[in-house]
Amino acid sequence: MNAVHAKVHADVLAGRRIDAVVIGASAGGIDALLRILPALPKNFGFSVTVVLHLPDDRDSRLAEVFQQHLAMPVRQADDKMTVQAGRVYFAPPGYHLSVERDFSFSLSQEDPVHFSRPAIDILMESAADAWGQRLLGILLTGASADGAVGMARIAACGGLTVVQDPKDAEIATMPSAAIRLRAPDLVLPVPAIRALMTAMMENQ
Looking at the annotation, which residues are catalytic? Predict the structure, then answer.
């Protein structure tokens, strides 16, 4: 992490309590996530919940694949499962994933949003309502506008919002849509997002 990024991270995290992280990504997202999540230590003290756009008609092996690269436990989120710190959760295919006010997951099969189920917006909006200002939302590369409304809700609830720099994204559509709708707290390339998440450990 360079000195500029270190100062930005220290400033944005100063005095802020983060309990949970939600991440949205679509096309190019697996590569971006594989550059971010493996850097997190086993004792990372926050939950991380990810929606990655997936085909509805096949099982997901994301949890299994990412577990091979991560020190943290990785799970596929399930209905009524309690969100726990120190774990990474992936949304299952074919279901929208929400977080309830009691910090448990809820699955539903409502209509797709931006042609996607799971939809990033649904996770982020519900997580913003659950955690409020204690939430960090991260939006990465993708080819739709999904996530823009969710990031705006996180910001409106006082949470911290980070969008991948469109110039750094494999596909800039998703981060660009979020930036146009509401300016995020930070616009960062993937290495700086990874550094921000590891810097969070110092603020636990």
Answer: 26, 53, 146
